[in-house]
Amino acid sequence: MGTSLFFQNVVSPPILFFFLGLTAVLLKSDLEIPSPLPKLFSLYLLLAIGFKGGVELQNSGFENQVITTVSASVLMSLLLPLICFLILRLKLDVYNSAAIAAAYGSISAVTFITAESFLEIQNIPFDGFMVAALALMESPAIIIGLLLVKFGAPKDRPIKRKMKWGSILHESMLNGSVYLLLGSLLIGFLTSAFDPSDIKKMEPFTGELFYGAECFFLLDMGIVAAQRLARLNKTGAFLIMFSIFMPIVNAVLGSLVARFLNLEPGNALLFVVLCASASYLAVPTAMRMTVPEARPSYYISTTLGLTFPFNIIIGIPVYMSLVNTMIPQIS
Q1: What is the pLDDT of residue 328?
Q2: 185: closest CA among 135, 127, 111?
Q3: pTM value?
Q4: Could you give the CA distance from residue 256 to residue 26 in angstroms, rounded to a whole number?
């Protein structure tokens, strides 16, 4: 990995604000963000990247690269939980293995947003249609995780409750983040197609404010991650190793697919980041509701306490170097 990539990522304002939140907990500062604000900023970030992605999707059109990349993204969100599950079963039961596998097969929107900021700092172009891949990669992993529980539960410990698949599909495909992303994507697409003049009216909201909102949100994420970091000792050495090892494995697999798709560097990095990130919001919500046998301390502490900080601080520049190494024809 080029040290310049790592240094430029670490000294960028979003990452520095993440460190500020992280150290606030470690130094026992009383810094805290009032609870409604992180949710508001999270929704804002999703709205902004969805709208901008829709505008760019309209400009680029539904060409073969868009269709193949989005299809490959969905395929990866079906495949990665299965790989994670097989590894986790070496040490854990079906319920915890399936819940954690679903989390690592799904995505982190904040990691994706941080990767976009990294690309902008590096002046590396990327396409807005990757937002569609972001939105569509969350639900399949949840469904795979629940299927693993349904068919993998021990015969002597059958699931006593009946899974309500209608509710499960609704929760996985229409949860707030997916709905807002897809809705904003569609609105951006339609606005660009029918009244491009309205895009300029949105620019101060979706453009100039975005970077500051990201910094504020990552400040809060630093606080939350540090709080989860303290609970990692309850997960054991195996899961601590898994939370670092698995994103790298998934990133390598993602880079191989990106090479096969002949993605350009910016799009390739975003694709790899989607494969390497892990959900700490949508999947835990779904798993807590449908698989109470799984321990939240396992699938939340690992994803949020270690994998998320690893990805945004170290992982993104590492994955960029991986892209440049494995896809030399476009680097």
Answers
A1: 65
A2: 135
A3: 0.88
A4: 38
Specify whether the CB–CB gap between 102 and 39 falls below 8 A.
no
Residue 255: how many CB atoms within 10 A of its CB?
A: 24
Please state the separation of Cα 328 from the chain's center in Å: 26
Please tell me the distance from the alpha carbon of residue 129 to that of residue 185, in angstroms, as a whole number.
9
For the record, the structure tokens of 158 come out as: 């059958």
Residue pair 149/183 in contact by the 8 Å Cβ criterion: no
Helix residue ranges, H only, the chain: 3-10, 13-26, 36-60, 64-88, 94-105, 109-121, 130-136, 138-152, 165-173, 176-194, 197-203, 210-229, 236-261, 265-276, 282-290, 296-302, 308-310, 316-326
Measured over the CA atoms of residue 181, residue 268, residue 224 and residue 91, the dihedral's sign is positive
DSSP string, 227-284: HHHTTGGGTHHHHHHHHHHHHHHHHHHHHHHHHHHT--HHHHHHHHHHHH---SSHHH
**pLDDT tens digits along 273-330:** 999 999 987 788 778 877 888 888 888 889 998 999 999 999 999 999 999 998 765 4
